[in-house]
Write a structure and sequence with these properties.
Elements: E1 7-9, E2 26-27, E3 34-40, E4 55-61, E5 72-74, E6 92-97, E7 102-107, E8 110-111, E9 119-120, E10 124-129, E11 134-140, E12 152-158, E13 166-171, E14 176-181, E15 186-190, E16 203-206, E17 209-212, E18 217-222, E19 232-237, E20 242-247, H1 254-259, E21 265-269, E22 279-282, E23 287-292, E24 297-302, E25 313-318, E26 326-331, E27 336-341, H2 344-349, E28 360-365, H3 366-369, H4 381-421, H5 427-441, H6 445-451
Parallel strand pairs: 1-3
Antiparallel strand pairs: 2-28, 3-4, 4-5, 6-7, 7-10, 8-9, 10-11, 12-13, 13-14, 14-15, 16-17, 18-19, 19-20, 20-21, 22-23, 23-24, 24-25, 26-27, 27-28
């Protein structure tokens, strides 16, 4: 079992909340079980001390408390200490735990990258052993693969073979993917125009803050391997409405990628105002999860669908208060979906209200999260049962009315006969008393109630 199953980034302080939640997606604090999660926090501003920009392991027994958990530095305080120059971990943006019990840390190497005097170290890939918490690799990206405006913010790890693992680091500043081979301990840079931002999709609006971002390739999600042990990488720029894909067969070799430009495919469009940052693919169900940052939502698409259309995409969670800026998505090895929201645009362009919950972690079993959406993969027997029961109810009412009408006709004829014989009663009174007596005496009480 993995000690660290899910990885998230955070800009300041993580706070759990036990506020009301939806039917399927719940706040992590409402789940009464031990939480073991890794959280990374980039050093975006100088005002953040090394205590606020560390990679943490949060372990506690949840008890529906709204108190923020204590964050423990990973692997230790020394790895984040800047007092003696460059620390081991400078500014981790996103991290990934693989099936080989390794933690991959994408360190973009920048301190204060929202300031004018940004401190820059070479970006690096750090790989830790999660059993011993010791570092296995510290691979600094070669200078020729890092451009002046480079900003490495997301990583996908293809861990089909633990000895031949590949990591894909997306460059949102200077569009490209740096591919790293564990076996070769080498990397190369792939470029394609699908990695670039769409100039018509650069306008964003989050909680009243309007801004323009030109972020290139951001969302990256890997499918389960095919028969040849190659995965499909689903990707998109953040400033884009489109989704793209390419087989990792063309990424594992730079010359092959350059020679197969058309291997990169346009899948389709998410629709207006549907820019997305992060994404993650659940290999068991084949469901692609992705954020919708302008809509304060997380959506999904079933990769077995032949078409990437709006009608084939589902919204699994949407909330204009709790899901402001969903910034990371993961599925763990126990088939649970995890989502982090952190209100980053409010923090960047306004001010966070300390009286509000600004950072939330949501979780739900994957099958519950996609239930009754366009991504549902479970046979909907409950829907069929509901339809059958509704049909039975309608049928019973029709039958009841027919039976009631039939008996009523018979009785009306009988009334005509009885009315002639009973001179002291009106025909109406005889009619009513006979019908009431028959209906109460025999089996039609239930039917009469349904008709009424």
């Amino acid at each position: 079992m993995h000690k660290h199953r899910d990885c998230y980034r955070l800009h300041q302080l993580l706070m759990y909340t036990s506020s009301p939640h939806s039917e399927e997606i719940i706040d992590a604090a409402t789940s009464a079980k031990t939480v073991n999660r890794d959280i990374s926090s980039p050093r975006i501003r100088y005002i953040m001390s090394h205590q606020e920009s560390l990679l943490c392991n949060d372990t506690r027994e949840t008890n529906n408390s709204t108190t923020s958990p204590k964050l423990i530095p990973y692997p230790n305080w020394a790895a984040h200490d800047t007092s003696n120059g460059k620390p081991l971990i400078v500014s981790p943006f996103r991290i990934r735990a693989d099936k080989c019990n390794r933690l991959w840390v994408l360190d973009n190497g920048k301190i204060g990258n929202l300031e004018n005097n940004t401190t820059k170290y070479p970006p690096a890939l750090l790989v830790f052993d999660l059993e011993t918490d010791t570092i296995l690799r510290n691979y600094v990206l070669p200078e020729e693969q890092v451009k002046e405006d480079s900003g490495f913010a997301n990583i996908a790890v293809e861990d089909t073979d633990c000895d031949d693992t590949f990591a894909y680091a997306g460059d949102l500043g200077k569009p490209g993917i740096v591919v790293y081979s564990w076996k070769k301990n080498d990397s190369w840079r792939i470029m394609h125009h699908y990695f670039h931002p769409d100039p018509l999709a650069c306008d964003f609006s989050v909680k009243g803050h309007n801004f323009s971002w030109t972020d290139a390739i951001f969302g990256m999600a890997l499918s389960a391997p095919n028969a040849d042990n190659y995965s499909t990488l689903y990707f998109h720029p953040m400033a884009s409405y489109n989704e793209f894909s390419v087989s990792t067969e063309y990424l594992r070799n730079q010359s092959v990628a350059d020679a197969n430009f058309n291997a990169f495919k346009l899948l389709g469009n998410r629709g207006p105002n549907a820019q997305s940052s992060v994404s993650f693919l659940d290999p068991k169900t084949g469901i692609l999860f992705y954020s919708l940052v302008n809509l304060n939502a997380v959506a999904c698409w079933r990769t077995t669908n032949k078409e990437y259309l709006m009608k084939n995409q589902g919204r699994i969670y949407m909330d204009d208060m709790k899901m402001i800026y969903p910034t990371d998505i993961k599925v763990d090895y126990d088939d649970n979906l995890w989502i982090l929201s952190n209100r980053m645009p409010i923090w960047m362009y306004g001010k966070l209200d300390s009286n509000e919950v600004n950072f939330r972690v949501f979780t739900a079993p994957v099958l519950n999260a996609i239930s009754h959406t366009a991504c549902d993969v479970t046979p909907r027997s409950d829907i069929l049962d509901k339809f059958v029961n509704k049909f039975k109810n309608v049928t019973n009412k029709i039958v009841a009315k027919l039976v009631f009408t039939y008996i009523k006709d018979i009785l009306e004829k009988q009334v005509q006969v009885e009315a002639k014989a009973v001179k002291c009663k009106s025909a109406y009174e005889v009619h009513r008393s006979i019908i009431q007596d028959v209906l109460n005496r025999f089996f039609l009480k239930e039917i009469r109630e349904k008709v009424q």
